[in-house]
């Protein structure tokens, strides 16, 4: 798991939201895909589509079907284009403000921070646990990498598992 690439993704998503982009792309990796799905499940982004270096048609990202669409615009995966695969993310806005406000890394490549269930309970209640600040606002989420995949902190407490703290989304 490369936290360097994940920090680049966090800063890219911050910049894309500030620039009011409807669609942006990040490099394709299993970590980025799982985090993108977790962000989509939390309602921060609208869609996640695997594609090539060129963006897929807008109707596939925005979710509006067209007649006789099929797999138009989605290129098949071959040995030649695996390295150029991208994840295309549809960003969401509410009343001309981005839903994904700010995304910051907690664990750094040089300092990985793990947390257990008791520490997560403190963080969810808004208290500081070691170097991890508590969740203060209602729309704030903390994402962890666990042995069951990338999950939000509240899900981890429900399932009684801890893990590596990845990022905070406000």
UniProtKB/TrEMBL annotation:
Q: Which Pfam families match?
A: Ribosomal_S8
Residues of the signal peptide: none
Q: Where is this gene product found?
A: Mitochondrion
Query: Listed GO molecular functions?
Result: structural constituent of ribosome
A single Gene Ontology CC annotation of this entry is: ribosome
| Top-level taxon in the UniProt lineage | Eukaryota
Asked if the keyword Ribonucleoprotein belongs to this entry, the reply reads yes
UniProt-listed GO biological process terms: translation
| Record key words, sorted | Mitochondrion, Ribonucleoprotein, Ribosomal protein
Q: What does this protein do?
A: Component of the mitochondrial ribosome (mitoribosome), a dedicated translation machinery responsible for the synthesis of mitochondrial genome-encoded proteins, including at least some of the essential transmembrane subunits of the mitochondrial respiratory chain. The mitoribosomes are attached to the mitochondrial inner membrane and translation products are cotranslationally integrated into the membrane.
| Family note | Belongs to the universal ribosomal protein uS8 family.
Name of this chain's protein: Small ribosomal subunit protein uS8m
The species this protein was found in: Aspergillus candidus
């Amino acid at each position: 798991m490369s936290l360097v690439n994940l920090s680049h993704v966090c800063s890219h998503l911050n910049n894309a939201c500030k620039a009011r982009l409807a669609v942006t792309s990040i490099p394709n990796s299993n970590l980025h895909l799982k985090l993108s799905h977790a962000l989509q499940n939390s309602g921060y982004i609208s869609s996640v589509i695997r594609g090539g270096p060129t963006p897929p048609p807008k109707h596939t990202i925005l979710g509006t079907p067209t007649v006789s669409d099929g797999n138009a615009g989605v290129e098949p995966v071959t040995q030649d284009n695996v390295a150029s695969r991208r994840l295309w993310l549809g960003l969401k806005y509410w009343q001309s403000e981005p839903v994904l406000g700010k995304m910051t890394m907690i664990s750094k490549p040089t300092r990985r921070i793990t947390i257990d269930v008791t520490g997560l309970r403190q963080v969810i209640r808004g208290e500081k646990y070691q170097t991890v600040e508590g969740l203060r606002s209602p729309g704030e989420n903390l994402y962890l990498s666990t042995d069951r995949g990338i999950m939000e902190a509240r899900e981890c407490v429900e399932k009684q598992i801890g893990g590596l703290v990845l990022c905070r989304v406000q």
